[in-house]
Protein backbone atom coordinates (compact mmCIF):
# COMPACT_ATOMS: atom_id res chain seq x y z
CA UNK A 1 0.00 0.00 0.00
CA UNK A 2 2.89 2.34 0.79
CA UNK A 3 4.11 1.83 -2.75
CA UNK A 4 0.91 2.97 -4.42
CA UNK A 5 0.71 5.98 -2.15
CA UNK A 6 4.24 6.98 -3.01
CA UNK A 7 3.54 6.58 -6.70
CA UNK A 8 0.54 8.81 -6.42
CA UNK A 9 2.49 11.67 -4.86
CA UNK A 10 3.32 14.29 -7.41
CA UNK A 11 4.02 17.96 -7.89
CA UNK A 12 0.84 18.11 -9.93
CA UNK A 13 -1.28 17.01 -7.01
CA UNK A 14 -0.51 19.38 -4.15
CA UNK A 15 -2.78 19.90 -1.18
CA UNK A 16 -3.31 23.19 0.60
CA UNK A 17 -0.54 24.03 3.02
CA UNK A 18 -1.90 24.33 6.55
CA UNK A 19 -0.89 27.61 8.15
CA UNK A 20 -1.09 28.65 11.77
CA UNK A 21 -0.54 32.00 13.42
CA UNK A 22 1.52 32.33 16.60
CA UNK A 23 2.92 35.14 18.69
CA UNK A 24 2.81 37.10 21.89
CA UNK A 25 -0.56 38.34 23.11
CA UNK A 26 -1.76 41.60 21.52
CA UNK A 27 0.67 41.50 18.60
CA UNK A 28 -2.32 41.35 16.21
CA UNK A 29 -2.82 37.65 15.41
CA UNK A 30 -6.61 37.86 15.48
CA UNK A 31 -6.68 41.13 13.62
CA UNK A 32 -4.47 39.78 10.82
CA UNK A 33 -6.79 36.81 10.39
CA UNK A 34 -9.83 39.10 10.37
CA UNK A 35 -8.26 41.42 7.87
CA UNK A 36 -7.34 38.81 5.29
CA UNK A 37 -10.70 37.14 5.73
CA UNK A 38 -12.63 40.35 5.38
CA UNK A 39 -10.86 41.73 2.31
CA UNK A 40 -11.63 38.47 0.58
CA UNK A 41 -15.17 38.20 1.80
CA UNK A 42 -16.00 41.66 0.48
CA UNK A 43 -15.43 40.38 -3.02
CA UNK A 44 -18.20 37.96 -2.22
CA UNK A 45 -19.36 35.03 -4.27
CA UNK A 46 -16.95 33.21 -6.53
CA UNK A 47 -13.36 32.90 -5.50
CA UNK A 48 -14.19 34.03 -1.99
CA UNK A 49 -12.90 32.24 1.03
CA UNK A 50 -14.90 29.62 2.80
CA UNK A 51 -15.24 29.24 6.49
CA UNK A 52 -14.45 25.72 7.60
CA UNK A 53 -14.39 24.20 11.02
CA UNK A 54 -11.55 25.82 12.95
CA UNK A 55 -10.01 27.11 9.77
CA UNK A 56 -10.54 29.32 6.75
CA UNK A 57 -9.93 28.10 3.24
CA UNK A 58 -8.46 30.59 0.77
CA UNK A 59 -8.74 29.33 -2.80
CA UNK A 60 -5.80 30.26 -4.97
CA UNK A 61 -7.99 32.31 -7.33
CA UNK A 62 -8.96 34.63 -4.49
CA UNK A 63 -5.32 34.89 -3.41
CA UNK A 64 -4.19 35.62 -6.97
CA UNK A 65 -6.78 38.35 -7.23
CA UNK A 66 -5.63 39.97 -3.99
CA UNK A 67 -1.91 39.67 -4.58
CA UNK A 68 -1.51 40.47 -8.28
CA UNK A 69 0.74 43.55 -7.78
CA UNK A 70 3.21 41.60 -5.66
CA UNK A 71 3.09 38.57 -7.98
CA UNK A 72 3.95 40.81 -10.91
CA UNK A 73 6.72 42.50 -8.99
CA UNK A 74 8.35 39.16 -8.15
CA UNK A 75 7.31 37.41 -11.37
CA UNK A 76 6.10 34.32 -9.54
CA UNK A 77 3.12 32.06 -10.19
CA UNK A 78 1.41 29.92 -7.56
CA UNK A 79 1.16 26.17 -7.69
CA UNK A 80 -0.72 25.38 -4.48
CA UNK A 81 -4.53 25.02 -4.66
CA UNK A 82 -4.99 27.50 -1.83
CA UNK A 83 -4.24 27.96 1.86
CA UNK A 84 -5.88 26.47 4.89
CA UNK A 85 -5.36 28.91 7.74
CA UNK A 86 -6.17 27.72 11.25
CA UNK A 87 -8.16 30.49 12.84
CA UNK A 88 -7.84 29.89 16.54
CA UNK A 89 -4.64 31.63 17.60
CA UNK A 90 -3.96 31.32 21.28
CA UNK A 91 -6.77 28.80 21.62
CA UNK A 92 -6.36 26.53 24.60
CA UNK A 93 -6.14 23.34 22.61
CA UNK A 94 -3.69 25.05 20.39
CA UNK A 95 -1.17 25.10 23.19
CA UNK A 96 -1.15 21.30 23.07
CA UNK A 97 -0.74 21.25 19.34
CA UNK A 98 2.16 23.62 19.50
CA UNK A 99 4.10 21.50 21.92
CA UNK A 100 3.45 18.10 20.45
CA UNK A 101 5.52 18.25 17.30
CA UNK A 102 2.26 17.51 15.58
CA UNK A 103 2.12 17.58 11.83
CA UNK A 104 -0.85 19.89 11.94
CA UNK A 105 0.84 22.98 10.55
CA UNK A 106 3.11 23.09 7.54
CA UNK A 107 3.97 26.71 7.90
CA UNK A 108 3.59 29.24 10.70
CA UNK A 109 3.28 32.99 10.87
CA UNK A 110 5.00 34.37 13.93
CA UNK A 111 3.56 37.81 14.61
CA UNK A 112 5.83 40.42 16.19
CA UNK A 113 4.72 43.93 17.14
CA UNK A 114 7.21 46.26 15.45
CA UNK A 115 6.87 48.72 18.34
CA UNK A 116 7.79 46.06 20.93
CA UNK A 117 10.17 43.69 19.19
CA UNK A 118 10.47 40.13 20.52
CA UNK A 119 8.46 39.40 23.67
CA UNK A 120 8.47 36.39 26.02
CA UNK A 121 5.82 34.40 24.13
CA UNK A 122 7.53 35.20 20.83
CA UNK A 123 10.68 33.59 22.17
CA UNK A 124 8.71 30.62 23.50
CA UNK A 125 7.11 30.16 20.06
CA UNK A 126 10.51 30.35 18.36
CA UNK A 127 11.72 27.58 20.66
CA UNK A 128 8.78 25.36 19.73
CA UNK A 129 9.07 26.04 16.02
CA UNK A 130 12.79 25.28 16.10
CA UNK A 131 12.23 22.06 18.00
CA UNK A 132 9.75 20.91 15.37
CA UNK A 133 11.89 22.27 12.55
CA UNK A 134 8.71 23.98 11.38
CA UNK A 135 9.27 26.66 8.76
CA UNK A 136 7.85 30.06 9.59
CA UNK A 137 7.75 33.67 8.53
CA UNK A 138 7.77 36.75 10.74
CA UNK A 139 4.96 39.27 10.31
CA UNK A 140 6.43 42.50 11.69
CA UNK A 141 3.04 43.95 12.46
CA UNK A 142 1.60 47.39 13.30
CA UNK A 143 3.77 49.34 10.84
CA UNK A 144 0.90 51.86 10.69
CA UNK A 145 2.06 52.95 14.14
CA UNK A 146 5.34 54.28 12.75
CA UNK A 147 4.99 58.03 13.19
CA UNK A 148 3.56 59.57 10.03
CA UNK A 149 2.87 56.30 8.20
CA UNK A 150 0.83 56.77 4.99
CA UNK A 151 -1.15 53.63 4.18
CA UNK A 152 -0.81 52.08 0.71
CA UNK A 153 -2.50 48.69 1.03
CA UNK A 154 -2.97 48.57 -2.75
CA UNK A 155 0.80 48.35 -3.25
CA UNK A 156 3.37 45.69 -2.43
CA UNK A 157 4.76 46.68 0.96
CA UNK A 158 8.19 47.30 -0.51
CA UNK A 159 6.70 50.07 -2.66
CA UNK A 160 4.53 51.31 0.21
CA UNK A 161 7.74 51.78 2.22
CA UNK A 162 9.40 53.66 -0.62
CA UNK A 163 6.46 56.11 -0.64
CA UNK A 164 6.99 57.08 3.02
CA UNK A 165 8.65 60.23 4.30
CA UNK A 166 12.33 59.92 5.18
CA UNK A 167 11.61 60.06 8.90
CA UNK A 168 9.19 57.12 8.59
CA UNK A 169 11.69 55.13 6.56
CA UNK A 170 14.33 55.84 9.20
CA UNK A 171 12.08 54.74 12.05
CA UNK A 172 11.15 51.59 10.16
CA UNK A 173 14.79 50.78 9.51
CA UNK A 174 15.74 51.32 13.11
CA UNK A 175 12.94 49.13 14.49
CA UNK A 176 13.45 46.49 11.83
CA UNK A 177 17.20 46.35 12.59
CA UNK A 178 16.40 45.99 16.27
CA UNK A 179 14.06 43.03 15.61
CA UNK A 180 16.65 41.42 13.33
CA UNK A 181 19.30 41.76 16.06
CA UNK A 182 16.92 40.23 18.62
CA UNK A 183 16.27 37.33 16.27
CA UNK A 184 20.00 36.89 15.86
CA UNK A 185 20.26 36.52 19.62
CA UNK A 186 17.82 33.61 19.22
CA UNK A 187 20.15 32.07 16.65
CA UNK A 188 18.04 33.12 13.67
CA UNK A 189 19.20 34.99 10.59
CA UNK A 190 16.35 37.09 9.29
CA UNK A 191 15.84 39.30 6.30
CA UNK A 192 12.97 41.26 4.81
CA UNK A 193 11.45 38.87 2.26
CA UNK A 194 11.92 40.97 -0.87
CA UNK A 195 15.66 41.07 -0.28
CA UNK A 196 15.98 37.45 0.79
CA UNK A 197 18.17 35.50 -1.63
CA UNK A 198 18.31 32.31 0.41
CA UNK A 199 15.14 31.16 2.16
CA UNK A 200 16.92 28.20 3.72
CA UNK A 201 19.34 30.41 5.61
CA UNK A 202 17.31 33.54 6.20
CA UNK A 203 13.95 33.73 7.84
CA UNK A 204 11.53 35.90 5.85
CA UNK A 205 10.25 39.04 7.50
CA UNK A 206 7.17 40.75 6.10
CA UNK A 207 6.17 44.19 7.39
CA UNK A 208 2.39 44.30 7.93
CA UNK A 209 -0.45 46.30 9.35
CA UNK A 210 -3.69 44.55 10.11
CA UNK A 211 -5.31 47.96 10.55
CA UNK A 212 -4.29 49.73 7.33
CA UNK A 213 -3.91 46.52 5.30
CA UNK A 214 -0.33 47.27 4.29
CA UNK A 215 1.67 44.10 3.70
CA UNK A 216 -1.38 41.83 3.80
CA UNK A 217 -1.01 40.89 0.15
CA UNK A 218 2.69 40.32 0.72
CA UNK A 219 1.96 37.96 3.60
CA UNK A 220 -0.50 35.95 1.49
CA UNK A 221 2.00 35.95 -1.36
CA UNK A 222 4.72 34.61 0.88
CA UNK A 223 2.51 31.90 2.36
CA UNK A 224 1.47 30.82 -1.12
CA UNK A 225 4.99 30.71 -2.61
CA UNK A 226 7.16 29.42 0.24
CA UNK A 227 5.68 25.91 0.42
CA UNK A 228 6.72 25.18 -3.17
CA UNK A 229 10.24 26.33 -2.34
CA UNK A 230 10.64 24.71 1.06
CA UNK A 231 8.03 22.00 1.55
CA UNK A 232 7.17 20.56 -1.79
CA UNK A 233 7.46 16.93 -0.61
CA UNK A 234 5.35 17.62 2.42
CA UNK A 235 2.45 19.16 0.53
CA UNK A 236 2.10 16.48 -2.13
CA UNK A 237 -1.32 15.01 -1.43
CA UNK A 238 -1.42 11.36 -0.34
CA UNK A 239 -4.00 8.97 1.06
CA UNK A 240 -2.39 8.21 4.42
CA UNK A 241 -4.68 9.89 6.89
CA UNK A 242 -3.18 12.71 8.96
CA UNK A 243 -5.84 14.08 11.22
CA UNK A 244 -5.70 16.06 14.48
CA UNK A 245 -8.46 16.91 16.96
CA UNK A 246 -8.63 20.68 17.45
CA UNK A 247 -11.49 20.90 19.89
CA UNK A 248 -14.15 18.80 21.59
CA UNK A 249 -17.42 20.55 22.32
CA UNK A 250 -21.12 20.04 22.86
CA UNK A 251 -23.37 21.60 20.23
CA UNK A 252 -27.09 21.97 20.76
CA UNK A 253 -28.91 19.41 18.68
CA UNK A 254 -25.75 17.52 17.77
CA UNK A 255 -24.40 16.33 21.11
CA UNK A 256 -20.67 16.23 21.66
CA UNK A 257 -18.69 16.91 18.51
CA UNK A 258 -15.02 16.95 17.59
CA UNK A 259 -13.57 19.64 15.40
CA UNK A 260 -10.69 18.15 13.47
CA UNK A 261 -8.21 19.20 10.84
CA UNK A 262 -7.59 16.61 8.16
CA UNK A 263 -4.23 17.47 6.64
CA UNK A 264 -3.96 14.48 4.32
CA UNK A 265 -6.15 11.59 3.22
CA UNK A 266 -9.91 11.14 3.48
CA UNK A 267 -12.60 10.58 6.08
CA UNK A 268 -15.94 8.94 5.36
CA UNK A 269 -19.23 8.68 7.16
CA UNK A 270 -19.63 5.41 9.13
CA UNK A 271 -15.90 4.86 9.41
CA UNK A 272 -14.60 3.41 12.64
CA UNK A 273 -12.13 5.79 14.29
CA UNK A 274 -9.80 5.89 17.29
CA UNK A 275 -8.88 8.96 19.31
CA UNK A 276 -7.08 9.55 22.56
CA UNK A 277 -9.36 9.94 25.59
CA UNK A 278 -8.67 11.02 29.15
CA UNK A 279 -9.47 7.52 30.46
CA UNK A 280 -8.07 5.59 27.55
CA UNK A 281 -8.47 5.14 23.82
CA UNK A 282 -11.92 5.87 22.38
CA UNK A 283 -13.16 3.70 19.53
CA UNK A 284 -16.28 4.99 17.84
CA UNK A 285 -17.97 5.50 14.50
CA UNK A 286 -18.31 8.70 12.47
CA UNK A 287 -22.02 9.55 12.52
CA UNK A 288 -21.69 12.66 10.42
CA UNK A 289 -19.10 14.92 8.84
CA UNK A 290 -20.05 18.59 8.83
CA UNK A 291 -18.76 21.88 7.50
CA UNK A 292 -20.51 25.25 7.91
CA UNK A 293 -22.93 26.50 5.28
CA UNK A 294 -21.39 29.06 2.93
CA UNK A 295 -22.02 32.60 4.13
CA UNK A 296 -24.61 33.53 1.56
CA UNK A 297 -26.74 30.56 2.62
CA UNK A 298 -26.71 31.57 6.24
CA UNK A 299 -30.49 31.93 6.24
CA UNK A 300 -30.93 28.24 5.55
CA UNK A 301 -32.28 26.46 8.65
CA UNK A 302 -29.41 24.09 9.21
CA UNK A 303 -26.08 25.74 9.78
CA UNK A 304 -24.10 22.75 8.50
CA UNK A 305 -23.54 20.84 5.28
CA UNK A 306 -23.32 17.05 5.57
CA UNK A 307 -20.58 15.23 3.70
CA UNK A 308 -20.31 11.53 2.92
CA UNK A 309 -16.62 11.95 2.34
CA UNK A 310 -14.06 14.73 2.76
CA UNK A 311 -10.49 15.06 1.58
CA UNK A 312 -7.55 16.92 3.17
CA UNK A 313 -6.59 19.54 3.75
CA UNK A 314 -9.83 20.59 5.41
CA UNK A 315 -11.38 21.44 8.77
CA UNK A 316 -14.51 19.42 9.66
CA UNK A 317 -16.79 18.68 12.56
CA UNK A 318 -17.29 15.01 13.47
CA UNK A 319 -20.38 13.79 15.28
CA UNK A 320 -19.92 10.49 17.06
CA UNK A 321 -20.95 8.70 20.24
CA UNK A 322 -18.76 8.47 23.30
CA UNK A 323 -16.36 11.27 22.52
CA UNK A 324 -17.09 13.44 25.58
CA UNK A 325 -13.69 12.65 27.07
CA UNK A 326 -11.71 12.88 23.82
CA UNK A 327 -8.67 15.11 24.04
CA UNK A 328 -7.90 18.11 21.92
CA UNK A 329 -4.51 17.63 20.35
CA UNK A 330 -5.01 13.90 19.82
CA UNK A 331 -4.32 12.24 16.51
CA UNK A 332 -7.27 10.51 14.89
CA UNK A 333 -6.92 7.17 13.15
CA UNK A 334 -9.35 5.23 10.99
CA UNK A 335 -9.63 1.51 11.72
CA UNK A 336 -9.59 -0.01 8.27
CA UNK A 337 -10.32 -3.63 7.37
CA UNK A 338 -6.66 -4.57 7.46
CA UNK A 339 -5.78 -2.57 10.55
CA UNK A 340 -5.06 -3.94 13.98
CA UNK A 341 -7.39 -2.03 16.28
CA UNK A 342 -5.28 -2.73 19.38
CA UNK A 343 -2.20 -1.37 17.70
CA UNK A 344 -4.01 1.84 16.77
CA UNK A 345 -5.30 2.18 20.33
CA UNK A 346 -1.73 1.98 21.62
CA UNK A 347 -0.58 4.40 18.98
CA UNK A 348 -3.22 7.00 19.76
CA UNK A 349 -2.42 6.91 23.50
CA UNK A 350 1.28 7.58 22.96
CA UNK A 351 0.63 11.30 22.87
CA UNK A 352 -1.35 11.31 26.10
CA UNK A 353 1.65 12.11 28.28
CA UNK A 354 2.44 15.24 26.37
CA UNK A 355 -1.15 16.40 26.21
CA UNK A 356 -1.88 15.78 29.88
CA UNK A 357 1.15 17.70 31.05
CA UNK A 358 -0.17 20.69 29.15
CA UNK A 359 -3.75 20.28 30.36
CA UNK A 360 -2.54 20.27 33.97
CA UNK A 361 -0.39 23.34 33.45
CA UNK A 362 -3.34 25.25 32.04
P1 LIG B 1 -3.72 38.99 19.44
O1 LIG B 1 -3.80 38.93 20.94
O2 LIG B 1 -2.32 38.73 18.97
O3 LIG B 1 -4.74 38.18 18.73
O4 LIG B 1 -3.94 40.54 19.07
P2 LIG B 1 -5.26 41.26 18.50
O5 LIG B 1 -5.46 40.92 17.08
O6 LIG B 1 -6.37 41.02 19.43
O7 LIG B 1 -4.78 42.76 18.57
C1 LIG B 1 -4.45 43.38 19.79
C2 LIG B 1 -4.66 44.88 19.70
O8 LIG B 1 -3.76 45.43 18.73
C3 LIG B 1 -6.06 45.24 19.22
O9 LIG B 1 -6.45 46.41 19.88
C4 LIG B 1 -5.89 45.49 17.75
O10 LIG B 1 -6.84 46.40 17.23
C5 LIG B 1 -4.50 46.08 17.70
N1 LIG B 1 -3.82 45.80 16.42
C6 LIG B 1 -3.69 44.60 15.81
N2 LIG B 1 -3.01 44.74 14.67
C7 LIG B 1 -2.71 46.04 14.55
C8 LIG B 1 -2.01 46.83 13.58
O11 LIG B 1 -1.51 46.33 12.56
N3 LIG B 1 -1.88 48.17 13.82
C9 LIG B 1 -2.39 48.75 14.94
N4 LIG B 1 -2.22 50.07 15.08
N5 LIG B 1 -3.06 48.05 15.87
C10 LIG B 1 -3.22 46.72 15.68
Automatic annotation (TrEMBL):
Family as reported in the entry's similarity comment: Belongs to the TRAFAC class translation factor GTPase superfamily. Classic translation factor GTPase family. IF-2 subfamily.
Residue window of the full protein shown: 400 to 761 of 1032
Localization in the cell: Cytoplasm; Plastid, Chloroplast
UniProt-recorded name of the protein: Eukaryotic translation initiation factor 5B
Ranges where the Tr-type G domain occurs: 14-231
